[in-house]
Amino acid sequence: MKWIFCLLALLCLSIAHAQTNNNIKPLSIGDTLPAGLVLTNVLNSPVSEIRLSDLKGKLVILDFWATWCSACLEVFPKIETLQKEFAGSLQTLLINPFVRDDTVRVKKAFEKLHPRISMPQNVPVAIQQAVFQKYFPFRFVPHYVWINQEGRIIATTSKDEVTAANIRKALKGDISFHLKNDNLDFNPWKPLFTAGTLNPDSLIGRRSTITPYIEGAGYWMVLQDYAPGKLRYCIINYPALTLFTEAFDLAEVPVNRLVFDSNVQDLFTITDAETDKYNKAYCYEVMGVNGLPSAKRRMRIDLEDYFGITVQQQSRLIPVKHIMAAGNKEYQSPPDGTSFNVVLRRLNDLSELPFTMDKTLEGIFIRLPADFYDMSLQEIERFLFGKGLQVVERRETLDVFVFSRGENIVHNYKP
After folding, report:
1. What is the pTM of this model?
2. Which domains, ranges and CATH numbers included, belong to the chain?
């Protein structure tokens, strides 16, 4: 019996990969758009159809998206801002190729996100454009196709490359940024590597692999019972920090409880440089272990050996932000509402300093505003003050997890 667990984060996997047919030749970088390529079902525009050939003279960016892809919708405000900034030289088009995403479904998606995200006002939206996925094949959305002023495809990218700086480059014919190239045949349920004609399912005893970022493979976490008594655990194209937090069971530990020595900070810091996202992403796979605890033990050893970095739990006296009742008054908890632990987790997600709370606040409830998760750290602190709670900075001894260069690492691995 097989069971599979998969987590897809940062990007969304297209559920139905459109198949090409004999009448349509898929286009790639360097190709010129065929004549007569027309967008239909256009919303948010004075016209219901847009002929791409009419857009020659402008840089055109086709933004492929889906209603179920949060990463797609989150970037719409940025797309609208870029369209305004480059109005005379850029035309962005939001193309939804999925037939099930009809007008009703699209409107509901935006109603759910309103007012934080709304339908772009200055960017045409075309829905149910299945034929466009045949011309521009992809596997993961959001997906962006860049077409130059002469109607030639010059790039395909992810959302991270859609920036004002890169648009300026593209307008000058400079494509010196990362290109997205989805591997349409990549199968995350198969081993990352096979040895010649050997059947990996039957002949692999135990092995583990670490690789750099694999272009076009997407982002996956796979736990697979691929043969009796043989487990495969695989993480594909995630930052090094994700690999370590999974291996050391730190996924629920706030990042502000992780301490990075100066000589390891670079590996775990993703800067604004576009290449960081790819240069500091890795894949890990272990096969042949007999359970998840065994897989993670093997993973910890492999990561320590490969990167030369250890993770140790230590107690340290560090600065914190402490929540307590204001003015030495007792906080009056409502009879219902949200557990205050939810607030504490959110604060720790937003803050560089760890948040702690007074023991008298354990088990209390609080009624949160509807836009709580859209509030900034400062706004939440002001909200708490209005509820009779104050935040004070002080020093406390907390358990933290220290990432440092390992010396004389000794492993006693037992599967």
Report:
1. 0.84
2. 4-171 (3.40.30.10), 200-309 (no CATH)
CA angle 381, 383, 385 (to 5 degrees): 70
How far is residue 188 CA from its own chain's centroid? 17
Q: Among residues 367, 369, 362, which one has the least CA distance to residue 337? A: 367
What residue type is assigned to position 319 of the chain?
Answer: P
Distance CA 110, CA 115 (A): 9
By DSSP bridging, strand 355-357 and strand 309-325 are parallel
| Percent of the chain surpassing pLDDT 70 | 90
pLDDT tens readout for residues 110-140: 888 877 788 888 999 999 999 999 999 999 9
Does position 84 have pLDDT exceeding 50, yes or no? yes
What φ, ψ does residue 208 adopt, rounded to 5°? -140, 155
Dump strand ranges (E) for 153-271. 153-157, 207-212, 220-227, 230-239, 258-260
C-alpha 362/C-alpha 364 separation (Å) is 6
Q: Which of 106, 124, 105 is nearest to 43 (CA)?
A: 124
- SS3 breakdown of the chain: % helix, strand, coil, rounded to 5? 30, 30, 45
- What pairing do the DSSP bridges indicate for beta strands 258-260 and 389-405? parallel
Residue with tokens 């992403």: 281
- Which tokens belong to 290? 């007999």
- Dihedral, CA of residue 14, residue 15, residue 16 and residue 18, to nearest 10: 10
pLDDT digits (tens, 9 = 90+) for 167-201: 999 999 999 999 999 999 999 998 887 644 445 55
Beta carbons of 401 and 250 less than 8 angstroms apart: yes
Q: Residue 60's pLDDT is what?
A: 98
